[in-house]
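User: I'm putting together a small comparison set for a docking exercise, and I want a reference complex before I start. The sequence is below, and the ligand is SN-glycerol-3-phosphate. Could you produce the 3D structure with the ligand included, as structure tokens?
Assistant: Of course. I'll restate your input first, then give the structure tokens for the complex.
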Amino acid sequence: MVTKSFCVLGHRGAMGHAPENTMASFAKAIELQADMTELDIHLSKDGELIVIHDSSVDRTTNGKGLVCDLTLEQIKNLDAGSWFAPEFAGQRVPVLGEVMEFIKGKIDLNVEVKASPQGVYPGIIDRLIEEIERHDMVDSVVVSSFQRPYLHELRRKAPHIKVALLYSKAFDEPWQEAVDQGWDLHPHMSLVDSRLVDEAHARGILVRAWNPNKAEEMRPLIKLGVDGVGTNYPEILQQVWREYHAERGTL
Ligand code: G3P
Ligand code: MG
């Protein structure tokens, strides 16, 4: 797990540079020396953990249909790179295990568990726990979700796995729920202020904000003392972080 005090978190790999949630994107996040990469998972018709953001394959592949209606074999036949740029033609939609094998020991992992249009995927948390343990990655994974039921299930079944609540709407005193439930906080950047950071830190809760892509959006978050920031451009975040600390003499 990241031991530095600040985590540069690549969003869907480094999706500003390569097609999101593909091996090319994870390779780019590693090349750019991000500390952790985020990715999104859905469950296929045959119960495989598919690394893709949307509940359908339409936007990021040359195929059509919901992930939950497609088998792994069908999904593996799709091109997940051409839509981004011709040089990425032939990139495939990965399964979680493939990404874990590729990144293990090089970069930490934030797995975001998504829902289908029908709601949460039954069984996805059991499959995820299996996969994290099979790859011996408990110490280098954080699981996050907007879906509290997933996080509750994880805390109950695998309390040794780190979890974080994703949220994009303000609610009262998120740090209280975080303490009660044993999770860290992944708020949208617009929801981060000094009270949130201070109250969370006073309780030992980490705050990782998402997803600024411009230096002027990143700097205030760094100034507030967040523990990590997700971005499509890890190299911009690193530069802003270095500049901020160089100015203050805290490098
Ligand atoms: O980790 C934060 C971010 O990934 C949540 O939003 O839509 O990019 O999955 P989204
Ligand atoms: Mg995500």
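The domain at 7-248 is CATH 3.20.20.190 (TIM Barrel). The beta strands are 7-10, 36-43, 49-51, 108-113, 141-145, 162-167, 184-187, 208-209, 228-231.
User: Thanks, that's exactly what I needed.
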